[in-house]
Amino acid sequence: MSDVLGDFLQASVRTATPLALAAYGELVAERAGIINLGLEGSIIAGAFGALVGAGVGGVGAGFVVAALAGCAAAAVVAVVVLWLRANTIIAGTAVTMLALGLTGTLYRALYGAQGAALSVPTLGPQALPWVSSIPVLGRALFVQPVITYLLYGLGLGLWWWSTHTHAGLALRATGERPAAAFAAGISPARVQGWALLFGGAMGGLAGGVLVLAQVGTFSEGMSAGRGFIAIAIVVLGRWSPLGVAAAALLFGAASQLQYVFQSLGWPVPYQLFLALPYLLTLLALAGTQRRAAAPAWLGRALDDDAR
Amino acid sequence: MSDTALALRGIAKRFGVTEALSGASVVVRRGTLHAVLGENGAGKTTLMRIAFGMLQPDAGTVEIDGAPVSLSSSADAIRRGLGMVHQHFTLVPAMTAAENIALGGHGLFRVHEEAARVQALAERTGLGVDPSARIASLGVGAQQRVEILKALARDARTLIFDEPTAVLTPIESEELFSWLRRFVADGGTAVLVTHKLQEALSIADDVTVLRRGAAVLSAPAATLDVGAVVRALTGEERREDAAQPGRHATRSSRGARVASLDGATVLDARGIVRVHPATLDCFAGEIIGVAGVEGSGVHELIRLLAGRLTPSAGSATLPATIGFVPEDRLRDAVIEEFSLTENLALRSAAARTGRMPWAALHEQARAIVQGHDVRTPSVTTATGALSGGNQQKFVLGRELHDRPSLVVAENPVRGLDIRAAEHVLRELSDTADSGSAVVVYSGDIDDLLPMVDRMIVMFAGRLREVPVAHAAVAAAMVGAKMGAEPDALVGAT
Question: With an 8 Å Cβ cutoff, are A164 and B109 in contact?
Fold first, then answer.
């Protein structure tokens, strides 16, 4: 039984890793006041970038190219929204659609119709000494790919950065009241631009994880809505780095439940469990709106005379 | 060091065709409290925005500490020791006082050090603020203290206050003033932009009066009396002070009482009194003009009469049919993208159920377009495609269409050209002649005086009836009492 539980928790953390990476990216963008629906596009661009990069220079290069590709997708959103002042929702959706189509087309053009057979070097789980032998939790948390360990540091780092640096204050002030940030000598548009790029890079890394640490290959549309789930995770995590980590884990666990039930031999249609994370999202959204924790300026355009 | 802290000399600024400032000068001596007075639109705010680097002048010089400077942004002004406390605070409600004060810095933000620094500054300057309190949980007076601390934390030696008492309770205002006196006594310099005359005369060292973009009076407060300042504010030196022969001279009798306020009081969301118990009767066939500056409670009084606000104490007795022409046409009266007919349908949309009687509405819209000289290709044209004047004529026509017993209009000619403005004012006048009671507020009292029967003025939430004369109205708007005017005319009918 403890083995089943251990397997389940380990798989939950594994599933949660790309979700948490993307959600951290979205968290920073939303703290600056922007809902980036292009995140899904950054993930798929990152996945494709990882395939290309890893083929040329190994796993490390794969992650670097993944982050850059995710960043590039977000840069398109940033230019269209902040410079050309288009609607954020439409720009983000368009970038996601574009990235999904473009990566599929490029994949077939570069690797042919039989591309599925192709595989790339992957990042296996690496047990951390000592802590990995803690019963149950040790294996779940500390027998994971290296990138997962980076993620733990990132959560703490983001929390510390947003409360203990002036740049973190500027980020939060921009999402809360850009006019006040502007009056204090901060350029809200520049802050939003950097936040979008960071979010894109994180989305790209999430895509990289899918290819390099989980599936081992690329397939069209393999981001499978993770960008949108990440946006829900930010809401469920109430815009705090640690809350987002917990929410991502919850989603990871919900997605893994289907396998547990299958292994237990319960005659429940697996589609029901596929729907579980999404059902959880709806419940989370319905349940958490009482006390507003969202940045006050989230989703609103900047004033023309205070950018 | 120069003993001039801040000097603005010969400043000119033009926005499009409007000349906001035409060679205005203000010289602020170090260690003094300098009041800048002016009516609405005299250029006070523009001048101060130029002093603080938020706007660049077309002509003239800005000097700080005796040296001419060229300010390209407010960051420039802050570096040179200027601070500004805006009427609308620039604070982040979700962040603490310490975080707000630290905003815009670089490197690490050490929560405890910053809190201690703010605490020390608060104690040294006597501005009591809890550094770890979230702004949203603070009252307006405390928020203003945070704004002041924000400026002082950046080593501001000269503070500019834009209408600082507009949002404060009387007690908070008193506290601010006594703090300001101590601040200048300790060598600081403060500029107080205000429309409140008594306030300026009682606490300032020097007073500068702006009228139509130029300084018309600049003198130590001790040498000035209320009458001299009012004459400077309104430019009444040459004009006759007698009541103008307005509409009231041509009317012999008035009709039945249509609407009345009886001790009606309005509190805002914070529980601050915006309208002190007001008593007013409106009679059929009569036009009442309303004047008052921003924040005087005039906005609330108008909404009270239009039935858009309910009094929190006292009572408002209103007729069943009221026509209301709100100030912000595009926000409150019409939807630009909708056709004229659709905007007409909106008027009573809340009371209607079932199918839309489009044919009848088109008919009504056509009647309004014809009856009120609205220039439009058709009633299905988007309202936003019409000129401002034609939009306003349509709104007025819509509100007058069912012959309401009371018509309330708020700044009905703002932004209109002369012909459209005349048309709108004439229609209001005709409406009164046909037996409605009319209440009109205008930011420009010269528009109002020729057409009204009575004038009431709001000042600091109090309603006062004054003679229909420019000087009397202008004086009442800044809270001054003119010699000839009886004191307690509140509610007189």
Answer: yes
Give me the CATH code for the B4-234 domain, please: 3.40.50.300
What pairing do the DSSP bridges indicate for beta strands B82-85 and A126-127? unpaired
**Interface check A242 vs B, CB under 8 A:** no
> Which two three-digit tokens encode residue B427?
């229609």
Q: Which residues on B lie below 8 Å from A163 (Cβ)?
A: 109, 111
B240-321+405-493, what's its fold?
Rossmann fold (3.40.50)
What lies within 8 Å, CB to CB, of B405 at 6+ separation is: B258, B259, B284, B319, B320, B321, B322, B436, B437
Residue spans of the domains in chain B: they are 4-234, 240-321+405-493, 333-402
Q: Per-block average pLDDT, block size 10, for chain A (307 residues)?
A: 78 93 97 96 96 90 96 96 91 96 92 68 83 82 88 92 92 93 89 97 96 90 92 89 90 82 75 76 68 80 78
pTM here is 0.76
**Helices A226-236 and A39-78: angle between axes, nearest 10 degrees:** 80
Q: Which domains are delineated in chain A?
A: 2-114+142-287 (1.10.3470)
Residue-wise pLDDT tens digits, A224-278: 899 999 998 998 888 999 889 999 998 898 888 877 777 777 777 777 777 777 7
Separation of alpha carbons A273 and A258, rounded Å? 5
The interface predicted TM-score of the complex, written ipTM, equals 0.82
**A31 inside 8 A of chain B by CB:** no
Contact list in B for residue A164 (CB cut-off 8 A) is: 108-111
Most A CBs within 10 A among B88, B95, B96, B109, hence the mutation to make, goes to B109
Rounded to the nearest angstrom, the minimum Cα separation between A160 and chain B is 10
Residue B492's pLDDT band (cuts 50, 70, 90): very low
